[in-house]
Design goal:
308 residues, alpha/beta, D-Maltodextrin-Binding Protein, domain 2, 2 domains, 10 helices, 19% strand, globular
Length: 308
């Protein structure tokens, strides 16, 4: 008697959970919601976002790393969960081995901003005041070990200033305390900071990208202000647990890239200083492997010490 064969159920059959490892309202959260909404239309099932901030994204990353590799639990992976956390924190997950890369959503620069409490108008004034203050100026970050933390620590190292670090659970609360005057400065993604820069609530002093951003062309790069080689970007991607079937990865990558090719999504992303970046899963895998090596090397080269 011949063996019976059973066809595998078509993916997806139910809601997909997307863990976003930051608080509601930050740049990463906005990108995730915008892109996943369009992906859901292609896939034919809702993508339900669950914000799980804390430990610079490590809590969400660990949960997804241990989830079933069936395509129904995904995460928005980004520079903190794949690059800066492994460089400075004792994380409990392997940023490469325990995940299946799906694709990149977008990328943006980081921008040094000051709030209403700080009256400096240019980068040189910021450095002069920081040196004069002798360690009393403060800055907020999206959490210990986050990109917003490590980039500012890198700036401190390169410019020989000393600032007080105030970590928060995500970029949104960190920005709010900067706006409220509880801290002096921050180095968030341009996506997060742009609305406040445009409204005049925050002043941009410098960008960390290799070249100036077209949305704030009058703001110089840190590199051109006397610190050549200073470069740091934010990026957001999509990851699944390791061993997720390749057919599911390819289906998700296709839905992601179709979303990024939509004119309205491209327009909305560019308006918030996020560059749509449709690439293959293999290309994203190579990018992440390079990122995992980049920040630990930077920490080693500069001698930066980060306390959790």
């Amino acid at each position: 008697m011949c063996c019976l064969s059973f066809a595998q159920p078509t993916y997806p059959q139910k809601n997909i959970k997307l863990l976003v490892p930051v608080a509601v309202g930050g740049g990463a959260d906005m990108v995730a919601r915008m892109v996943s909404e369009k992906m859901a239309q292609t896939l034919g099932v809702p993508i339900v976002i669950e914000n799980k901030a804390g430990a610079s994204g490590s809590i969400a990353a660990l949960e997804v790393a241990k989830a079933q590799p069936d395509g129904y639990t995904l995460m928005q992976c980004f520079v903190a969960t794949r690059s800066t956390n492994p460089a400075v924190l004792p994380i409990k997950y392997d940023p490469i081995a325990e995940f299946s890369p799906i694709g990149m959503m977008a990328r943006t620069s980081n921008v040094l901003v000051v709030g209403p409490k700080n009256q400096v108008k240019i980068f040189a004034e910021f450095l002069a005041l920081a040196r004069k203050s002798q360690g009393s100026m403060s800055y907020s970050s999206a959490g210990s070990g986050s990109a917003t933390h490590l980039i500012m620590a890198y700036l401190e190292n390169q410019t020989q200033i000393n600032l007080v670090h105030a970590p928060y659970k995500g970029a949104a609360p960190a920005i709010q305390h900067l706006l409220g005057g509880q801290v002096d400065a921050m180095f968030p993604s341009l996506t997060t900071a742009l609305p406040y820069i445009q409204s005049g609530k925050l002043r941009a002093l410098a960008v960390a990208s290799p070249k100036r951003d077209p949305l704030i062309p009058d703001v110089p790069t840190v590199a051109e202000l006397g610190f050549p080689g200073f470069s740091a970007i934010q990026w957001w991607g999509l990851c699944a647990p390791a061993h997720t079937p390749q057919s599911i990865i390819l289906q998700l990558n296709k839905a992601l890239n179709l979303a990024l090719e939509l004119p309205d999504i491209q327009k909305r992303l560019l308006q918030m200083a996020a560059e749509p970046t449709p690439i293959t899963a293999d290309q994203f895998s190579s990018f992440m492997k390079a990122e995992v090596l980049k920040w630990p090397q930077l920490v080693k080269n500069t001698g930066i010490k980060i306390e959790p």
